[in-house]
Amino acid sequence: MEKERAGRNRTITLSDSERLDLKQSLHTLTDDSTVHDVVDKTFNQDILEAIKYLPKHFVDLLVIDPPYNLSKDFAGFKFKATGDGEYLDYVRSWLPKVLELLKPNGSVYVCCDWKSTSAIYQVLSEYAIIKNRITWQREKGRGAKSNWKNAMEDIWFGVLKDNDYFFDVESVMQKRKVIAPYKVDGKPKDWEETEEGNFRITYPSNFWDDISIPYWSMPENTDHPTQKPEKLIAKLILASCPKEGIVFDPFLGSGTTSVVAKKLGRHFCGTEINEEYALLTVKRLNMADNDKDIQGYCDGVFWERNTLNLQKKTQTLKSKKHRVTESACIPFIDFNKE
Fold first, then answer.
1. What is the C-alpha separation between 53 and 321, in angstroms, rounded?
2. 217 pairs with which residues across the strands?
3. Is residue 288 part of a domain?
4. Number of domains the chain contains
5. Beta strands 246-249 and 59-64: pairing type?
6. Does residue 101 contact residue 62 with C-beta atoms inside 8 Å?
7. Can you give the pLDDT at residue 80?
8. Beta bridge partner(s), residue 294
9. pLDDT tens by residue, 81-137
10. CA dist., res. 304 & res. 297, Å (int)
């Protein structure tokens, strides 16, 4: 039975008729495939099964958000927390195989929490070169009376070749409000005065405190219990996948990686074992045909939290000047054409 939701709730859901219709857009792999066979598709399949048939070395970027070492119910698919050794074995069962999908100059990001981060680092470091650990502030979840609230997660960044990988730092610059403007000879130093306020464009660090977890009033929200924000995935894709490149997600969930890749003019491919989440992925991909907005990413830069009104004001001012944002200008190649 469907939940009753408030009138302003924007959570993406599925009707029975949609499920029947969208199911036609899901795929499974049963034989060796080529890039043309898999690109821009969603596979409703266990990654350990699909990996047998996926082409090798076709992916520019891997974005991996596996089940953490926590007991979770993913719409009927239950993952049970285990001991550290057992979880390490679990990571070993899929991570080396998934890394074989990367191009020699490809990159990988693996999400984890404090309990699973050591296992992810240990296995990833055996097969890739670790470049960095991103820590991002979740700011969601219950408090704890006898422990510290868990408000951080890690993302390990790795490459296959230390001196040959794509990284576009200019595409992930941050726009921050200047609290105490500093001037030299009466002119702004390293910041600009705009109609919206005083701002500085800064290089991103490996600590991200500008991410909002999807919630009921956000148009990207689904009922997936561990859905990643589109803004977070957008940073990974813009920084580490060239335009028209291919992004793969082996634990696709409700489709955020594929959806963001499509919005940003990259190609996508992903596997998801749960049919309900795979169907949500297809629905969100269809929605992305007409809506390429990514909350928190506006005018080619990433904004701080709680600046939505400023972002809208910026877009209004830009549209008056007949300028178009980067996300609407990226060319797209159809791999499925002969």
1. 50
2. none
3. yes
4. 1
5. parallel
6. yes
7. 83
8. 297
9. 899 999 999 999 999 999 999 999 999 999 999 999 999 999 999 999 999 999 999
10. 9
Q: What is the dihedral of CA 210, 212, 213, 216, to 10 degrees?
A: -170
| Per-residue tokens: 119 | 């296992």
Take residue 136 and report the two structure tokens written for it. 């991002």
Q: Assess if residue 318 is contained within a domain.
A: yes
Where do the H-state alpha helices sit in the chain?
Answer: 16-22, 35-38, 47-50, 84-99, 117-127, 230-240, 256-263, 275-287, 308-320
Residue at token pair 């109609």: 195
Pick the range with the lowest mean pLDDT from 49-53, 186-190, 261-265, 271-275.
186-190
Contacts of 294 (CB under 8 A, 6+ apart): 230, 231, 234, 260, 263, 264, 327
Q: Are 251 and 65 in contact (CB under 8 A)?
A: yes
- Residues 161-212 pLDDT 10s: 999 999 999 999 999 888 666 666 666 667 777 777 778 889 999 999 999 8
Domain extent, residue 294, equals 16-170+208-328
C-alpha distances (whole Å) from 213 to each of 61, 73, 167, 227, 336 are 23, 19, 25, 8, 34
pLDDT digit string (tens) for 287-304? 999 999 999 999 899 999
Structural domain includes residue 11: no
Supply the pTM of this predicted model. 0.89
